[in-house]
Structures are given as C-alpha cells and as structure tokens.
Amino acid sequence: xxxxxxxxxxxxxxxxxxxxxxxxxxxxxxxxxxxxxxxxxxxxxxxxxxxxxxxxxxxxxxxxxxxxxxxxxxxxxxxxxxxxxxxxxxxxxxxxxxxxxxxxxxxxxxxxx
Length: 113
Known about the structure:
By secondary structure, this protein is an alpha+beta fold. It has a single domain, classed as SUI1-like domain (Translation Initiation Factor Eif1). The protein has helices at about 65-75, 95-105, and strands at about 40-45, 55, 80-85, 85-90, 110. It has two helices and five strands. Helices cover about 20% and strands about 20% of the residues. A five-stranded mixed beta sheet has the order 3-4-2-1-5, with helices on one face.
C-alpha cells in the first residue's frame, strides 16, 4: 500500500456487518479575525533540555494561516521557531517582543502568563 493511502484508523478487518469505518474528513477550521483571537503567551522550558521557548497558545485557524503567523513572528524576533500540537513556538525569551507585535497587528485579547 502506498504511503498516500494508508489506513490510519488502525482497523484491519471487522466481522460486524453494520460496521462503518471512521471517515478521515476533518472540518476545515475558519481563521478568526485578529481582534477575536484569544491568545496566551508564556515562557516554557520543560522537556527542552533547559532551553527557554516562548509559547503562543489559543490560535484558531487554518494550518496555512498558522504557518504565516509563525513566520512573521520569527522574522520580527529574529529567532527560530515552529508550530507543534496547536502551539506556536518561538526560541528564547521573546515574550515582550511577541506581545508587542501581536498588539500592533490587531490581536487585542493577548494574555501574558
């Protein structure tokens, strides 16, 4: 079986005649406007070999919009970063810069912890 058409549900065979396999279709998330986003910014260093990262949680939107936001934040802060498990990660203690950029670009509900 090719990698494109994997059976990700883990079900190989069922003897139940009424069995319907779960569909893989996901609802497309709509990206909320910046003023409607409720973002939480915090510093974390757990499970990161003691290195600090700035976490931005609570972004609701499509993966492409999330990637675009993280790209803009990385460019503004001048550091690296990524997007994992629904969180945006910026390397280092960049909490003030991130909060400044978000408020300047219309994100009004930003909580810093």
